[in-house]
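Q:
Just now I want nothing more than another pair of eyes on a protein record. Here is the record:
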Amino acid sequence: MPEPDPTPAHDTTHFGFQDVPVSEKSARVRDVFSSVADSYDLMNDLMSLGVHRAWKASFVNRIAFRPDMRFLDVAGGTGDIAFRIREKARPGSTITVCDINPDMLRVGKARAIDKGILGPKSGLRWVCGDAEAIPASDSSFDVYTIAFGLRNVTNIPAALAEARRVLRPGGQFYCLEFSQVVLPVLDDIYDRYSFSVLPKLGRYVARDEAAYRYLAESIRKFPNQEKLAALMGDAGLEQVKVQNLSGGIAAIHSARRI
């Protein structure tokens, strides 16, 4: 399989294994997540056999919490990461959830209501926005998180540059994403599972087989651990670290804006 290119070339980019016009990818990704928004969290449990919960717990545990922090969770529409951050956040902290998809934000807001997390005192703010053009001023946040969202942006280097822009000096960057399996036997098993089981789960649970075929393909097109770390450095993020999870099925990349 050819090495993935994180930067759109000329006028086309990848949407899974398809080449599509750069101008169309964002809308196609929005359509995918609009289709699966209501079943998104259930599908995460089924696809990972619940392991995604441990990954997310490890992800949030990496954050260095202090009072009065401003958090930005990008592509976090259903609130899964934001709710976890809120449980650990110190007094005076606020969390902005930014997602390009209104349907994912709708699900997140409904979940917040179910949890009794309401009003300005909740510390939560929901914003519809693009990871490549975040609606926030420079140096606005202490912590930037993105979980299972970076591989869906059209231009990964642009999204990483935006992350650096909105972080304050000394700010923390954390990315949780599917990555490249590093164990020889597990990689074959994972490939078979991804391309046979995931689309079938999508068909019967989310009623959208194509969305979960795209998921499997988008993982294969995403830069591996080393290449993503290099892209982060190119974007001006420093002190880059990588932690593999479950043999590299997922990985946490962390860095700081210095």
